[in-house]
Design a protein that fits this description.
- The complex is a heterodimer.
- Chain A has five helices and no strands.
- Chain A is mainly alpha-helical.
- Chain A is flat and about 60 Å long.
- Chain A has two domains: 69 residues; 69 residues.
- In chain A, α1 packs antiparallel against α3 and α4 packs across α5.
- The model of chain A has no long low-confidence stretch (mean pLDDT 92).
- Chain B is mainly alpha-helical.
- The model of chain B has no long low-confidence stretch (mean pLDDT 91).
- Classes of the chains: A mainly alpha, B mainly alpha.
- The interface between A and B is medium-sized, with 13 and 17 residues.
């Protein structure tokens, strides 16, 4: 297993607290919605709260991309992000037409970012598999 | 891009990890360059050439000259 470079370590140090705060905020907001009768501006604010750490994750990913000094690793990440974007746009385009004709319902749009992350992961797996098949032995 | 990286590395008895450490890149970067799956930027190509005390042409085969040779 290869050691993480400083940019990757910084990424993890920024990423972990954001994910922990995301989980805590989600639990707190769900609890408040169950027990209280939130309305108006309070409800609006509470609804937006879980999005803040996720937006933070997007910023942290951008910072990592800027700080990564290994150009090959950076290139791979950009290609994976492009792949993820392509998959997300394709899926939402198809879904949109299906929805337009009443075949499927409206999906929760906050899932776009987790879906994009998953699609990016699929792209990374596909690239790793292609490398393995091309033979990258020392 | 074809290159002589594997040969040059072997002449010095370096593993891909050794070369990666000297270039301050990941081992997978060295592997990708060596196998021609990734073309390094000009600054990295210079760093590689300088590490072996060669010119860039001494390490990498020019894609335009490959067909002539």
């Amino acid at each position: 297993m290869q050691r993480r470079n400083p940019a990757q370590r910084r990424y993890l140090l920024r990423f972990m607290p954001l994910m922990v705060s995301y989980a805590l905020i989600l639990i707190a907001v769900s609890g408040a919605q169950r027990h209280g009768d939130l309305a108006g501006a309070t409800l609006g604010m509470m609804s937006v709260l879980p999005a803040i750490p996720l937006i933070g994750v997007m910023i942290v990913m951008g910072l990592y991309l800027r700080e990564e000094r290994d150009e090959f690793v950076r290139n791979r990440l950009v290609m994976a992000m492009l792949g993820g974007t392509g998959i997300l746009l394709s899926a939402t385009t198809v879904w949109g037409f299906l929805e337009n004709n009443g075949v499927v319902g409206h999906p929760p749009t906050f899932l776009a970012f987790p879906f994009w992350c998953g699609a990016m992961g699929i792209s990374q797996c596909a690239m790793a598999l292609r490398d393995r098949m091309a033979g990258s032995a020392e | 891009m074809n290159n002589r990286l594997r040969v040059l590395r072997a002449e010095r008895g370096w593993s891909q990890g050794d070369l990666a450490e000297r270039l301050e890149v990941s081992r997978q970067s060295v592997n990708a360059i060596e196998t021609g799956r990734y073309d390094p930027s000009l600054p990295l190509a210079f760093r590689i050439a300088e590490l072996f005390d060669l010119t860039i042409e001494g390490v990498f085969v020019s894609p335009s000259r490959k067909d002539i040779a």
